[in-house]
Amino acid sequence: MERAELSERLGAGPLRSSGRGTVVCEADPVQFQSAFGDAVAAGGPVFLADPAWRESERREFAALLASRPERATDGDDDRGWLCIPTGGSSGSIKLARHDGHTVAAAVGGFARHFGCQSISAVGFLPLHHVSGLMAWLRAVLTGGRYETARWEDVVAGQRAAPPSSDAFVSVVPTQLQRLLLQPEAVAWLRSFRTVFVGGGPVWPDLLHAADKAKLPLALSYGMTETAAMVTALRPEEFALGLRSAGQALPHARVSCDPDGTIVVAGESLFRGYFPAFRTDGAEWRTADTGSIDARGHLHVLGRRDAVIITGGEKVDPVAVESVLRATGQFQDVVVVGVSDSVWGQVVVACYPAGDPAPDWAQVRSMVEAELSGYRRPKRYVALGDWPRNAQGKVNREILRESVIRTFAEKSGNGGLV
Fold first, then answer.
1. Which of 4, 92, 206, 374 is 20 to 30 Å from the Cα of 393, by its Cα?
2. Is 276 in the same domain as 317?
3. Cα distance between residue 312 and residue 358, in whole Å
4. Where are the alpha helices (DSSP H) in 143-269?
5. Are residues 244 and 317 in the same domain?
C-alpha cells in the first residue's frame, strides 16, 4: 500500500511530502490516532515514542533521531518511513523501519489466516507499540471497527461489548491471569471471536485455566520487526489441545536453523533499524529459539540471549519460571542470571515486593522435586520497582541491576536460600 493511500484511509487527506520527520508521542489513543494520521500525511519519517519513557530512554531516543544524516536517504517517502520502537527487554532502544507495504502485507496475511474480510477489535494495548498499532491498523485497512478501552476500566468491570460478533482482542499473560479471576470478565472474553495472548511467556497453568474457562484463545509469535504476528494458532486448534504458536501466516515464512534459531522471511519484515536499511527480501535471524513440528507449527523455546550459564550448565529461565508459577506462591516472577565469581552466573528469582509473602516450604518442596540442582534459584529477591511495561514485558536488564543493588540487604532475610 502506497503511503498516499494509507493517508487517505486514515482520513488525513492527501500526502503533503514536507520531508521533515515527525515524532508521535501520545498516551491518549484518540490523540495518538489523530497525530499519527497527520504525521503520515506530512511526509518524511514518522517516529513513534513511548510517553512513559524515563529520562535516560528519552536521551537515547533523541540520539537515534540525531543520527539521521543531513541528506537522509529516505527515498521517495514510501519505504521504511514508519519507525517503531523496540528493544525494551534488552535495555537498548531500536527503531524498526516499516511502511505501508509491510503493514498491508501483515494485515492481508492476518485476514487470510483467520478467514475474515473486515477486522474489528477492542484494544487496550498502547498504540505506540506494534501490538496495539497493528490491531488498530487492521481495522483501518479492512473497513472494520476499532474500539479503544482502558485496562483500568476493564479490570474494574467497565467493559464495552465487542464492536462486532467476530471481533478480536489481545491481552498479555498477566492481564489474562487477572481477568480469569473475575467470572464477568471471563464471560466478556468469551464474547470475542479470538483472544490473542502474547507479549511474554505463557505458563502451562495459565493455559490450562483458559482452556477450562473455554476461552477462544490463540497463541501467536511475532515482534516489531515482523509487523506483529507471523504465526498464529486458531482458537479451534487451542480447544483441541494444541499449545504451539501455530502455523505461519500466508505472508510469512518461518523456519528454524540447525542450532534452533527462529528465522523469518516475508513481505512484512522491517526495512532495517533507523537510520540504516537492510536488504529487501533477506531473511532475518531472530534472537529466539524454537522448533517446527510435523504439522508445521512453531514452538518457541526462549531467547538465545536469556540463557543463564552457571557452572558450565545452561539454564532456560522461562522453564524455571514455569515451575515457580506452578507452586501458586507467586503472582509474578522472573528469573535472571547474576554474575558470580565461583559459578560464572547464579540463578536468581525475583518477585514484586508488594505481593503476599510466599510459603517458602512449599516453594522449596516443588523446586527440589522438579528442578535439578544447577537449575534451582540460589536467591529469591523481592523488588519494589517492578519494571514491566504495558505490553507485559519485563525489562530484564533493569531488573538484573536492581537485584545487584539489593543483594546485600536481602541476603539476611527469609528470601535467601
1. 374
2. no
3. 30
4. 151-156, 173-179, 183-190, 204-212, 235-239
5. no
